[in-house]
Amino acid sequence: MSDSFDVDVDLWRDELESKRAEKDEFFAEHPQSPIPPEERDDFDGLDYFEPDPDYRVVATATVHDDPEVVRMDTTAGREMRYLRVATLEFDLERDDEDLEDGTYELAAYRLESPNEEQLFIPFRDKTTGQQSYEGGRYMELAPDRDLEDGDELVLDFNLAYTPFCAYSETFDCPLPPEENWLEVAIAAGERFEESTPF
Predict the structure, then answer these.
(1) Residues 92 and 183: beta-carbon distance below 8 Å
(2) 3-state SS of 46-83?
(3) What are the tens digits of pLDDT across the range 155-198?
(4) Where does the signal sequence lie (predicted)?
């Protein structure tokens, strides 16, 4: 791994815990929280996997100069149009001998909008529907410039989050396309079980 991607694990963990506390406060108190108002009094914080720096990986980008349109189904039965702008390849290396190392790929998308710069990375993995939301989870990246082939960027699965539609049917969320279904358990980021009480 490049030295520029090395991280102070203690500082990284503190920052992650701070972000999680901030999000819990938003969910508990903010008018735009996805938790229905009548359930907020019972909300005592989101459920997370333990922070794990092994799931903070460096991905290499392959950029698609003429991005294809990808139509993603949504939880409300609609379709949303995205552009597949890059493919991100990364290695997972685990100390746990029961888990396989491997090289994986995720497509990164942008909304079909001229001003959209953020990369959207929806995915499913082997925790989906068991330890995490059945509709998959999301990550977002905001590169500071246009990506080029071979660029490296950090994918931190500890930041993977559950879409708002898990908490309320008033939200309509895109479902990860099959090309972003990972054949590995990503035990990082937000957990979600259908029985989770709020």
Answers:
(1) no
(2) CEECCCCHHHEEEEEEEEEEEEEEEEEEECCCCEEEEE
(3) 999 999 999 999 999 999 999 999 999 999 999 999 997 655 44
(4) none
Q: For residue 143, how many C-alpha atoms fall within 13 Å in the half-sphere facing its CB? A: 22
Instruction: Count CB-CB contacts under 10 A for residue 62.
Output: 15
Q: Are strands 47-48 and 119-123 parallel, antiparallel or unpaired?
A: unpaired
Which of 110, 87, 99 is closest to 183 using CA atoms?
Answer: 99
Which pLDDT band holds residue 99 (cuts at 50, 70, 90)? low
Strand order in the sheet with 56-73: 137-141, 119-123, 102-111, 79-92, 56-73, 152-156
Q: Where are the beta strands (DSSP E) in 93-149?
A: 102-111, 119-123, 137-141
Residues facing 73 on adjacent strands = 79
pTM over cut 0.85: yes
> Count of CB atoms within 10 A of residue 179's CB?
12
Q: Any residues with CB less than 8 A from the CB of 134 and at least 6 apart, and which?
A: 128, 194
List C-alpha distances in Å: 92 to 116, 143, 148, 181. 29, 22, 23, 15
